[in-house]
Amino acid sequence: MRGMDIIRVVGVAVLVIWAEQAQAADAQKIGVMDQQAVMERSKAGKSALEEIKQYSVTRQKIIDADEQELKDLERTLQESLSKLSEADKQAKQEQFRGKVEAYQRRLQEFNREVQQKQRDMVGEYSKRIGDAAQIVAQNEGYVAIFDKGNEALLRIVLYHHPGLDVTDLVVKEFDRQNK
User: Fold this and answer.
1) 149: alpha, beta or left, given left = phi > 0 and alpha = psi -120 to 50?
2) What structural domains and CATH numbers belong to the chain?
3) N- to C-terminal Cα distance for the chain?
4) Helices and strands of the chain, counted as H and E runs
5) In whole angstroms, what is the distance from residue 44 CA to residue 53 CA?
6) Helix (H, G, I), strand (E, B) or coil at 79
7) Cβ contacts of residue 19 below 8 Å, gap of 6+?
8) What phi, psi does 174 have (nearest 5°)?
9) What string of pLDDT tens digits covers the 179 residues of the chain?
10) Per-residue b/e over 60-72, b at no fewer than 16 CB within 10 Å?
11) Which candidate, 17, 123, 110, places its Cα nearest to that of 66?
12) Which among 7, 44, 9, 25 has a CA at the least distance from the CA of 144?
């Protein structure tokens, strides 16, 4: 069984046990939310997503400039190879290889930076969204609010009645907390 399948099975088992206990007690309210939608629809979430986008665009401009410089250098090198001695050819080709390697290192470094910034933002905002969901649960009498997840990552809730979706309430609370 793959890791995601195991998580899904454990999640379903917890839900079944919880549902059985909930049936034995008085009727209890549960809700679901879409954490990604909270990020995309809240003011603070939109701002954070825009910040990541701008950070990535800035890095991409640097990479594009480096790439153009490499193309220009390669073209110049190709044009001048026939005029150079063998030693000069080798020196120019070695210089070009060094620049290509530096470009590749910079590209990898920028990709790592962007990914780390995204991970940091997701971690920070997941906690803050969780705090907002907890307040909604307390204010509205929910005993649990589950994140629906999404197709790209992990879908925890496979089905829910639309009336259980509290995403809009969490967005409002999240905005209230993050003015």
Assistant:
1) left
2) 3-177 (3.30.910.20)
3) 44
4) 5, 2
5) 14
6) helix
7) none
8) -60, -45
9) 555 555 555 555 555 565 565 554 456 889 999 999 999 999 999 999 999 999 999 999 999 999 999 898 888 888 887 787 888 888 888 888 998 999 999 999 999 999 999 999 989 999 999 999 999 999 999 999 999 877 766 677 878 888 889 999 999 999 999 88
10) eeeeeebeeeeee
11) 110
12) 25
What is the residue whose two structure tokens read 């050819």?
A: 89
CA 123 to CA 128: how far, in whole Å?
A: 9
* C-alpha span between 35 and 74 (Å, rounded): 47
Cβ count near 150 (within 10 Å): 13
Query: Locate tokens 């195991």: which residue?
Result: 6
Predicted TM-score (pTM) of this structure: 0.69
CA–CA gap between residue 97 and residue 74 (Å, rounded): 10
Joined together, the tokens standing for residue 44 give: 């603070």
Contact criterion met (CB below 8 Å) for 178 and 46: no
Give the CA-trace dihedral at 150, 15, 166, 50, to 10 degrees. Answer: -30
Give the span between the Cα atoms of 24 and 22, in whole angstroms: 5
Contact 143, 29 (CB under 8 A): yes
Give the tokens for residue 161.
């009645």
